[in-house]
Amino acid sequence: MDTFLENAKTWLSDFFEPGVKKEVQDLIDNDTNELKDRFYKHMEFGTGGMRGMMGVGTNRINKYTLGKSTQGLSNYLKQSYAGESVQVVIAYDCRHNSDTLARTVAEVFSANGIKVFLFSELRTTPELSFAVRHLNCHAGIVLTASHNPPEYNGYKVYWTDGGQIVPPQDGAIIAEINSLSFEDINFKANDSLIEMIDKEVDEAFINESVANGNFNAQGKDDFKIVFTSLHGTSITAIPEVLKRAGYKNVTVIAEQAKPDGAFPTVKSPNPEEPEALSMAIQKAEEIGADMVVGTDPDSDRLGIAVRNLEGKMEIVNGNQAMVLMTRFLLEKQKEKGFAGNEFIATTIVSTPMMEEMAKAYGVEFKTALTGFKWIGKMIKDFPQSKFVGGGEESFGYMVGDFVRDKDAVTSTLLACEIASQAKANGSSFYKNLIDCYVDFGFYKEHLVSLTRKGISGAEEIKQMLIDFKENPVESVAGSKVRWIEDYNTATATNVITGEEKHINLPKSNVLIYETEDGTRVAARPSGTEPKVKFYISTNAKLAHADDFKKVSAELDAKIKTILAELDLG
């Protein structure tokens, strides 16, 4: 008997609800392909926890898969904090079933004698991260699938420091979960251990966001912002944060302000996709706004559009926003004086410009695997160091360490501060970005993201990465490959000299080629979606801001050549 069929038949026992049993039996009788996709594996933790399509099955998000994860986490918490009164905090986003799934998770924790703080309504992921430490909790959970399509949901686990789980906790928790059967889940809630929370934590979080993101920029009365929450959670925080920081000209896109898990006005609620910001950009052009900001459903990513040199709204990518925000924070730190223990951080597939900036300011630069949990881990691992700020190319940024995950709430305020001050100085957000290119080198990046769904898609992604490794690229756009970084073997090899270096990061399915002129091409599978991603980074010197358009066109042409060479065009 096929394993998927064996797995499915275990869901016909009386432990499972009648409606679930009926659905499984119908699939067994009528739809083998769908049955296989739902039961051929158990959903696993990736870079963002557990995320997948909702529905019945071991490979779906539902009451039982989340219940089993929560039971395993409960067991691990009680072992780790034996003798203590264990506490957890739970938040959820706008997605279908997030509220009921959050309640189920709370009930399983309470059934295991664990005190639960449950947000009474949807809240942002950064507020959940903040709340873990604010409420002295041992762990936190947020029910979210971030920017995935409407049929998805997910389950992110945060540890005592407010950051996402990392080694060794993640492996130990997964081992505990895998040792359980569904029948081991205790669903008998102890309601006396579930406490609803809202305003008090909101107030503390908003105050900290303003304290960390407000730099008393000039020109706020004359600065116009268009904001969209893209039907997500940031509507609960960002308008209030901007108001308290002194911004009066904020236009909220009403059609996208109501939380809605169907995301009816966008193809994808992902600010990385230009279409997601189209309604807000149109409004900005109508009213002559200076900046557009849009956030994903759980408010950890932000997309920004500003006026370019021609005065038209243009979306800046995650690398560009990160560079500008980091420089601003470093300048502010420089005004106060560097203590010598400051550091900035980014990920291995983000712009190399961050390292150049760190050198210029004389601060430490740290790099991590993709996934913001690794940046959060740095703060925990180096308590003597001060985290100034950092981010990743996928539109995530973190200001200081009061939140331990990417935080679109405080980052939105910071972006507005930069742009408002620049306008007051007779410059602009966009011109400030060009100044960064002059000072640190003009780095231009491009992302290719290929979706391959289902079982066959997973195999195709696996094979593409094997091919990329086993048929090494010798040159890229006329520049000889010098280094091949294989994160699966934790080895960087200089293919010209034969030199080998150890990569001091956890092993990961990532391969990066770097050429003699600093061009980089990276490949990795997504940890949260059925995608394989290729990251291209090119660079050139920009002697003067007046040369920006010319050099930009040259880099665009180079990227086009690379795409053709790698058959990614």
TrEMBL record:
Its cofactor is Mg(2+). Pfam families: PGM_PMM_I, PGM_PMM_II, PGM_PMM_III. Residues 43-182, 205-305, 317-435 form the Alpha-D-phosphohexomutase alpha/beta/alpha domain. It comes from the Bacteria. Coiled coil: none annotated. Belongs to the phosphohexose mutase family. This is Phospho-sugar mutase. It comes from Aggregatimonas sangjinii.
